[in-house]
Design brief:
Length: 294
């Protein structure tokens, strides 16, 4: 990540010419100072940066800037700082910018919280339909197999005992729920951590929409092949999934589609690249900011 950041910063300096960069403290204070013509070459990664613009233009639109530092080349993860992300599409066309809320996409990484949430998810989705038959449920006669004394054999009262063939199972599993309890605030924090981890890795892409021209699978294959280092991709849309997109991805084992309501920690961890639409980001942020009903 640091090597990618340094390389991106060097490319930006080469593209923008020998003009000196402003100090870090003054990079992102446009609203506080009222200066709107200062160049701000802010880099976090190739996907969370500003576009290379002519020398007489501002790299980040002023309306997207706040009085706090959004992003810096050597920033630390988990500082709750807002970040500016490029918005593109499947054709890698520039569709503007979007601010990623720092309290959702830049929280400290805690593996213990992620482990608890994943364990809760996997336990809750278990069916729990396993069942075995006890001595009262197994099929067989209730007659005593032979008399109690005089045979020299061990005494038995039924052939449905667990030591006999086709007998009962003692202390076997019965249908039950495997779900465990986990506080809502911990579940919410787990999702924030998963989103922050993908953002810090540069594996979060923000798209304007997920519209595809047809239901052909080859279109999605071509789009995914153009993504750098994308082996398994999760596409997240704001509302209902487009029919063409659903048909185009259902035959690809490395591409999955979810609505924003179904976004979860385990699905994020299973995919190395997360693609979210602008609407999905807004809905997730709104969901994270909604007060928890107790």
């Amino acid at each position: 990540m640091c090597a990618l950041t340094r390389r991106a910063a060097s490319l930006l300096r080469a593209a923008t010419g020998p003009a000196p960069r402003p100090p870090l403290a003054a990079q992102h204070r446009l609203r506080a100072t009222g200066c709107r013509s200062e160049k701000i070459p802010v880099f976090c990664s190739s996907r969370y940066s500003t576009l290379i613009a002519p020398s007489n233009e501002v790299l980040i639109p002023p309306e997207l800037l706040s009085s706090q530092t959004v992003c810096s080349p050597e920033r630390k993860i988990g500082q709750y700082e807002d970040m500016v992300a490029r918005v593109t599409n499947f054709h890698n066309e520039d569709k503007g910018y979007m601010v990623l809320d720092g309290d959702v996409f830049d929280v400290p990484i805690r593996k213990d919280i992620v482990h608890r949430v994943v364990r809760w998810q996997l336990a809750k989705r278990q069916q729990g339909t396993h069942s075995t038959k006890t001595i009262s449920e197994v099929s067989g006669t209730g007659r005593k197999p032979y008399k109690q004394k005089g045979t020299g054999r061990a005494r038995h009262g039924t052939l449905r005992s667990p030591q006999f063939r086709s007998g009962a199972t003692m202390h076997g599993p019965k249908p039950r729920s495997h779900a465990i309890k986990l506080q809502k605030k911990v579940r919410r924090l787990g999702l924030k951590i998963a989103l922050s981890a993908r953002t810090a890795e540069g594996k979060l892409l923000v798209f304007e929409d997920l519209q595809v021209p047809s239901h052909k699978t080859k279109n999605i294959v071509n789009y995914i092949s153009q993504m750098d280092g994308a082996k398994k991709v999760l596409l997240v849309d704001g509302g209902d999934i487009d029919k063409n997109l659903k048909l185009a991805t259902q035959n690809l084992h490395y591409v999955n589609v979810l609505p924003s309501l179904g976004l979860n920690v385990y699905s994020i961890l299973q995919h190395d690249t997360l693609v979210m639409t602008r609407d999905a980001v807004n809905r997730i942020v709104e969901r994270m900011h909604t007060p928890i009903n107790r």
